[in-house]
Amino acid sequence: MSDLAITGLLVLSLFLILGSGVWIGLTLSGVAWIAMQLFSARPAGDAMAVTIWGSASSWTLTALPLFIWMGEILFRTRLSQDMFKGLAPWVQALPGRLLHTNVVGCTIFAAVSGSSAATCATIGKMTLPELTRRGYPEHMVVGTLAGASTLGLLIPPSIIMIVYGVSAEVSISQLFIAGVLPGILLAALFSGYIVVWALRHPEQVPAADVRMGFMQKLSESRSLIPVMLLIAAVLGSIYTGFATATEAAAVGVVGSLVLSAVQGSMNWGTFKDSLMGATRLYCMIALILAGAAFLTLAMGYIGLPRHLAEWIASLGLNQAQLIVALAIFFIILGCFLDGISMVVLTMGVLMPTVQAAGIDPIWFGIFIVLVVEMAQITPPVGFNLFVLQGMTGRQLPWITKVTLPMFLLMCGAVALIYVFPGIVTWLPQQMAAR
């Protein structure tokens, strides 16, 4: 059979099995099994056992359940309850006032969550009713929340960065540090959009609350300060080389346990719920990674990555054209698959092509995270859109419309990191120099 026929058969198998309701991880393993049985001389069972064990026993992957657990613990502290109260005094003077709590709140929670859907749901529970009650326009409240919640993927520690690092064999510590400046850039773009909108529509911005002095603001934010220090400790230990990503994750878990105990929100029920929540999420991701590792091996035996790389090379695309083509490809793919599945399905095939084009794998990792973020707010499978639909009761087309400016700002962020790659690579270079 030709490469095109084999690819078509495997893609058809993938969508048929997915459409039947089988879990994504098992679907990937099933397609890999078909490929090994039909197009390879190696026994499929032996290949699957060896590959899945090797994938599941990776020490690098240990950071993933630890960071997920850290986020689960902090999610159950008073952080989510006190965040709006702590942030509101600091943004009153900015054009757009409390709309900025969506952006700043998502940025802070992203650093303890690693998931955009969790960030959207948590911050939305606080800001949607409060901002609506105060008279802020619903389209701005929902739109800025949809865009800013995607920062859960970009601000470290990020689940999808760990998945990419394992799939592409790239340093997770360097990926984490590389995401800091692009995350701040994207948050600044979102806040900048709020400022411009507020200056153009001052009549739609409610009046400011009573002004507070600096010490009053600090008092209102006292519940946020320990969490900010914990985040700084986790990221600082990675940047200085004092700890690896896995060790920093362990520090984060211990710190979050201590913090929740001091706040009085830790009890046996909370501990058990956080542990079970982290276990369920990690098991789902680990199953997807194991299936993807087996599928990557099967693709290697068939030779599809090499043939695809040769085909892309034959097109004569320069680096910029390749990046544009990949961005469009991932945005379209994001209409049908979640972010983790997109990464694990494509990395084995695309990395040889990306490396042959001379693209830095650390930079490419941040690029992937950005375009996957964009896919989170594109219908029909934009998970953040579903979360917002459930919270607001609005129809998907309306939510998609008010989110469009955020999508365009993300496109601008991708263009900026391409034109100025140092936004991504400068901090990892400084970290390596240390």
UniProtKB/TrEMBL annotation:
Q: How does it sit in the membrane?
A: Multi-pass membrane protein
Q: Where in the cell is it found?
A: Cell inner membrane
Which regions span the lipid bilayer?
Answer: 9-36, 56-75, 141-164, 176-200, 221-242, 248-269, 281-302, 322-350, 362-386, 406-427
Instruction: Please classify the protein's predominant subcellular localization into one broad category.
Output: membrane
Q: Give residue ranges for domain TRAP C4-dicarboxylate transport system permease DctM subunit.
A: 12-423
Which keywords does UniProt give here? Cell inner membrane, Cell membrane, Membrane, Transmembrane, Transmembrane helix, Transport
- What's one GO MF term for it? transmembrane transporter activity
State any GO CC term: plasma membrane
Concerning its family, UniProt says: Belongs to the TRAP transporter large permease family.
Q: Which PANTHER family match?
A: C4-DICARBOXYLATE TRAP TRANSPORTER LARGE PERMEASE PROTEIN DCTM, SIALIC ACID TRAP TRANSPORTER PERMEASE PROTEIN SIAT-RELATED
| Summary of the function given for this chain in its UniProt record | Part of the tripartite ATP-independent periplasmic (TRAP) transport system.
Assembly notes = The complex comprises the extracytoplasmic solute receptor protein and the two transmembrane proteins.
Q: What is this protein called?
A: TRAP transporter large permease protein
**The organism of origin for this protein:** Acidovorax soli
